[in-house]
Amino acid sequence: MQAVVLHHLGDIPRFESFPDPDTTHCERLVGVSAAAIHAIDRQAAAGMHASSPLTLPVVCGVDGVGHTAGGERVYFSATRRPFGAMAEFAPADWVVPLPDGLPGEFAAALVRPALMAWLPLAHRAELEPGETVMVLGATTAAGRMAVQAARLLGARRVIAAGYRQEALATLEADATIDLRMPRTSLEHTLFAYVEEGVDVILDYIWGEPVEVLAAALVRSDHAMPSPDDRGVRLVSVAERPGGDIVLPAQALRDSRLRLMGYGPSSYPPVDYVKAYVEDILMYGLDGDLRLDVETMPMAEVAEAWERAGRQDRRIVLTLDEREA
After folding, report:
1. Quick one: DSSP state of residue 162?
2. Which of 57, 91, 272, 299 shows its CA 20 to 30 Å from the CA of 123?
3. What are the phi and psi torsion angles at 187 (to 5°)?
4. What is the CATH number of domain 2-97+292-318?
């Protein structure tokens, strides 16, 4: 089969022949039509992610859209190496049917960044309707999706914080914070929002903003919490190195801060994930979740790989019979 193949960490993958995948008893063979280039794909290929392969060569990609042997259009997850989603065929861990009318390329781009918002908010932080959500790194692809997801999950107020003011202005948030401001100004700004009340903080960037925010929570937490208080749940899903932070014991002892991470080891059972994906796909069909998408032929992966790191639009690699 033809596939996007990585031979050495740090190299750009190549479109070339690769052995056809076998399937285990719990997998389904999917004929791939589209697979997006996600941040995790580029980081893993660069050797900068916990999921970076230890044995090479491998096929890149963790999810995509295609069809089963019976012709059903599906979104699929493919994580068993050396195979992957960016290929003519993929051994799928699990699949979710695509709703009629939803473009496959859009679905391939949408699900992973949406899940990286849905799972931390709904499963880890257990967001309840009426709560206030702050998104750190709201101008990343996942961060922009988190602003939309928080609203759909019932947040009363959404505060978006990021480093690109022009991008922040395009988000449908109730308030925005420019993280480029001097640290002293950032401390005052975050303290003001924390004083007004923040229930869930979803972090995509780590580093100084989290450190400053923890200090703001210590300053603001003077009242005795109620017996049913759930605290301020800060969930970090940062995939890119954002620098280390200094976290004094006081930040945990004298505040309502509950610091959590979220990654594959925290995922709920597959049936729960599939249910979330079904919701995400329906929201995408209804136009409630938006994402800028650009399609390129899988054979042009070298150019697409470079462009994916320089733009906000999610690049989706497509494969048709002429390329296979």
Report:
1. E
2. 91
3. -60, -45
4. 3.90.180.10
| Nearby residues of 159 by Cβ (< 8 Å), 6 or more positions away | 132, 133, 134, 135, 173, 174, 175, 176, 177, 193, 198
Q: SS3 of 220, please?
A: helix
Q: Mark 73-84 as b/e (b = at least 16 C-beta within 10 Å).
A: bbbbbbbbebbb
Q: How far is CA 17 from CA 80, 87, 164, 228, in A?
A: 18, 9, 41, 58
Between the alpha carbon of residue 281 and those of residues 102, 141, 150, 158, 285, the distances in Å are: 8, 17, 16, 22, 6
Q: pLDDT > 70: what percent of the chain?
A: 95
pLDDT in tens, 245-295: 888 888 778 788 899 998 888 899 999 999 999 999 999 999 999 999 999
Domain ranges of the chain: 2-97+292-318, 114-266
Architecture of domain 114-266 in this structure: 3-Layer(aba) Sandwich (3.40)
- The answer, yes or no, to whether residue 226 has pLDDT greater than 90, is no
Q: Which residues contact 226 (CB under 8 A, 6 or more apart)?
A: none
Residue whose token pair is 């794909």: 41
Helix (H), strand (E) counts: the chain: 9, 16
- Rounded to whole angstroms, the Cα distance separating 258 from 299 reads 46
Long-range contacts of 271-274 (CB under 8 A, 24+ apart): 272/123, 273/94, 273/115, 273/119, 274/94, 274/96
Count of positions (residues) in the chain: 324
SS3 of 73, please? strand
Contact 298, 4 (CB under 8 A): yes
Residues 123-135 as b or e (16 or more Cβ within 10 Å = b) = bbbebeeebbbbb
What does the pLDDT look like over 57-89, one tens digit per residue? 999 999 999 999 999 999 999 999 999 999 999
Alpha-carbon dihedral 164, 166, 168, 169, rounded to 10 degrees: 170
CB 90 within 8 A of CB 78: yes
